[in-house]
Amino acid sequence: MFDTLIHRIFELAVSQPEKIAVAFKKDTLTYKVLADKIRAIGANLAQIGINRGDRVLFTALSKPEMVAVYLGIQYIGAVAVFIDKNSTPENSALVYKDAQAVLFLTDKPMKDCEEGFRLLSLKKLYASPAPEEILEYILPDENDMAEILFTTGTTGKPKGVILSYKSVFHILSNTIEGIGIRPDERLLLPLPLNHSFALRVLRATLYTGATIVLQNGFAFAREIELNQEAFDCTALAAVPASMEILRAQMQEAFVRVMGKFRYIEIGAGSLTIEQRKRLTKQLPDTTIFNTWGSSESGGALFTNVSEIARSEKVGAVGKPLPQVLVRVLDENGFPMEKSDALHPGRMALKGDMIMAGYWQRDELTAETLKDGWLITSDMVYTDEDGYVYMLGRADDIINVGGEKVSPIEVENIASEYSLIRECACIGVSDPNNVLGQVPVLFVVIQTVQTSEDKTGVPEQFSEAGIQSFFAPRMERYKLPQHYVLLPELPRNRMGKIDRRKLREIWKNQGDKDLMNSVINAILTRRSIRKFLEKPVPRELLDMILQAAYHAPSGHNMQTWRFTVLQNTEKISILKETIKEVAKEKKVNFYGFEQPPCLILISNDTRNPDGCQDASCAAQNIFLAAHSYGLGSVWLNALMTLCDEPRIRVLLTSYGIPANHRVWCMAAVGYPAAPGVTLAKKKDVVFYVE
Hints:
The chain is α/β, with parallel strands linked by helices and 689 residues long. It is built from 22 helices and 30 strands. It has a nine-stranded mixed sheet with strand order 2-1-10-9-11-12-13-14-15, sandwiched between helices. The protein has a seven-stranded mixed sheet with strand order 6-5-3-4-7-8-18, sandwiched between helices. Strands 16, 17, 19, 20 and 21 form a five-stranded antiparallel sheet that branches. Strand 25 (437-445), helix 15 (463-470) and strand 26 form a beta-alpha-beta unit. It is globular. The N and C termini lie far apart (64 Å). The mean pLDDT is 89.
C-alpha cells in the first residue's frame, strides 16, 4: 500500500470537514480549511514559477501556517526543505546554497545575506487568496523526492537526508502502529517542526484524522497545562530533557497534569533506567513510550516503557515492528549470529521507511546504505525476544585498556545516585598514557539533597562518595577517573546531550576543575518556596549568619542587623499581617509559604548604602544555605511596608530599631521540592578589547 499525507487530508476534508486538524492557541485549521489552504498555496507557488522537483526552503515555525505551506509545496511536486526557525541568516544561506533551492519562504530578516536568495514572506503566501486556476493534485511516484531534512549530526557539517514519498508514508505508518495513535487523539506537540521526531508525529497524527496542537517549546510548563485544558489533549510528544524541565517546574502538579494524558511518547533520546522507573510509578494510568529513531529512518524501535519498567528488559531501547529488520554487525560489517552486552556490534536497519540517501553526498550515502540496509553508528546487542539494547554511538564507546565501556551504562548507574540530577559520560585520553582512554563523568548536582550524613546534615557531593556508590555496581575499569561539575549539561535544540561540546570543555580545562564549590553553589542555587517541617540546626544557622556579616559593606559601616525568627507561630502572625496590609496598600505579595526559619535583614536608613549592604548579605545567606543543602528565597514585601503601623509594631517586638528598614526577608529551610530551573540570558556579556 502507498498513499500520501496530502491525498489523505483531502479525503478527511470530505469525511470530517469541521474537525480541527491543527491548532495553535486561538488559531485553528479544520481539515477542510487545511485542504483549501494546501491547494491555494500550491497554486500560488506554481504561478511564480515553482516546478516539480524544485527545492523550496522554508522556516519551520510551530504554527498552522507552517503545516499548510509544507504540504502546499508538496502539492505541486516541489521538494520541502526545512530550516530551524532559530537558524542564523548565515546558516540559512548555507543550507539554501547546498540544497540548490529556488525559493526561501521566511519572515526573518536576513540582514546582510539577502544576496543570492529568492525570498518570499511565508505569512504573505499563507494569507494569499487562491488564484482562479487551481492545479489538480497528481499523486507522485513513491520514489520521488518528497523532502530534505538537514541535520548537523555529530560532525557539525550539515547533511541533507533525502526522504522519498515512500519513506515518508512508511515512517508515519510505523508511528501509527508503534504508538497506537487513534482518530480521536488530540496530541500536544511542543517540539521544533524541522526535526524528524516532531515531523513524523505531525504526519502520523494528521494521517490518522486526529488533531495536532502546536506549542513553542517547553520553556513554560504552565503552557502545557493551558493547552491541555483548552483542547482536552490526550497525548504528548516530548524528549527526555523536557520531561525533567516539566517535572522541576510543575513540582507537585506534575502528576496531576501529566497523568491526564492517555500516553506520552518520548523520542530523540533514551530515558535513563531511573527515569523509566520513576515516570511509570508516578504516572500509572499514562502509557509511556520511548522510541528510537533518526532522520534517516524515522521511528524504528518502539518500547512500551510502562510494560517493561519492572522487568529485566527495563534498559531496552526498543523493539522493531514486524516490517522493520534489525541486524547486529561485527567490526568487519558481517551479521553476528548472536550478540550480548559483552559482544555488541553496529546496528543495521532495513525497511521501506529508510531514506533514499544524502543530498549531494554520494560517498557518504554509499557508506551508509548497503544492499538496502541502513548502517548506523549505534553499538547495540539484542536479546532472544528481539529487544535492542543501546551502548552508545560507536565513536562514543570508551576503550579502556582494550575493555569496552558504554557511556550509557555508566550514566544509567550514576543517575540512581541521590546527589546527581543528571550526568553524561565521555572517554578522554588517559593522562598517564597507560589505558588509552578513561571515563570522565560530567555531573549536575541535585539542588535538593535528601540523603544525610551521620550528624543529620545533608550529604554533600564528593568524589569519594560517588566512587563508593559506584564500586559495588560496576567493574573497576568502568569507574570514572575524573568528575567535572557543571551547572547544566550542554544540549542541542532537541535536548540531546552535546558530547562534542563536553569534549571541548574537557579539552579546555582538562582535569582542572573550573567548577569549584563556590562556582557550583552560585550556578546551581534555585529559589525554594516550599519547605519541609524540619528545623534548621543552630550550628548551620550560625555559619550561615557568619557568612552574612562577612559580606561587603560600604565604607565598612556594618550598620545592618539580622533578626532570626524560628517560632512558627510568630512567623505565621507576621505572614498574615503582611498579607492583610499588602492587600490594603495594593502591594504585590506572593511566595511566602511557611518556612521554618526567617531572617530579616535590616539596615539603618541613615546609611545611603543600606540597600546594597543588605543585598550582599542576602546573597551570602542564600549561597551558604545552598552549600548546606538548604533552600532559600528572597521575600521583599517589607521593603515597602515595614513602616506601616501594624507591621512596625511587630518589628519593634523583635527588637528591630525604628530607624531600620527591612530590605529583605530570607526564608530558609529544607526544600520540599527542587527549585524551578529558569533559562538565563547569555547574550548580556560584552568584552571591550
